Amino acid sequence: MILSLLGALAASVCFGVATVLQAIAARRAPSAEGVDPRLLVRLASQLPFLAGLALDLSGFVLELAALRTLPLFVVQAVIAANLAVTAVVASKVMGLRLSRVEWGAVAVVCLGLALLGSSADKESPEEVGAAFRWTLLASAASLLLLGLAAGRLTGTARAVTLGTLAGLAFGVVAIGARVVTDLAPLSVLTDPAAWSVALAGLTALLLYSTALQKGSVTATTAAVVVAETVMPAAVGILLLHDTTRPGLAPLAIAGFVLAVLGTLTLARFGEPST
């Protein structure tokens, strides 16, 4: 389980650095009205985006490995804490100054993750029925359609809505990765849960990039953090039987709350190129 925790932390580092690179690319790319799937094509011509995408893929592989033995509420809190990584990287590499409150938030995130790590019980990939797998795929498709509709909104409403939908899509990726138990190529190709991972991943990337182009960075990132942590954690506990070590549930709750609140305090680093 120690290796899984280290893998989740490494994934968070990958995602944190990727955020810097992808945000720079999103600001450089020509914007369009609404949510335009061709945005990903335009971003693919930029080296920072491709480097960030490579880090995202590396992070996903590490996240997938962590989800084999760790509860969703632990892994998603660790992944969301990539903003702490982004904040530290931005302060050292890009010269951005962190306030005392933000440095305190980094410390709170670390404390929260330490509590989560110490309270988590070992899990294994969960066997679920076909209905659950098809529901995941339908959810991924629904989030894409809702995102296309939300692109017509303006201002903070657009940023929060797209951020929330992107966060939910990231959550579907995590849940799908957790329930894909058979990794044989033929099984993966015929598993609706595996297809939900691919569709939700592309949806999350498109909606998040679109929101960063014109919306409030802080509002977008805060919405993503809440959606990608709370929803998967609830599904893991209620439907996938995620648990803590005996008697340590209060410790896990405290760690989860501290990690999420600390991450929300660092929401402006969702797009550090500003």
TrEMBL record:
Instruction: From the record, give the transmembrane residue ranges.
Output: 6-26, 73-91, 103-120, 132-150, 162-181, 219-241, 247-267
The answer to whether keyword Membrane applies is: yes
Q: State the superkingdom.
A: Bacteria
**SUPFAM superfamilies, alphabetized:** Multidrug resistance efflux transporter EmrE
Which UniProt keyword terms apply here? Membrane, Transmembrane, Transmembrane helix
Q: What protein is this chain from? A: Integral membrane protein
- Give the organism, scientific name: Actinocorallia longicatena
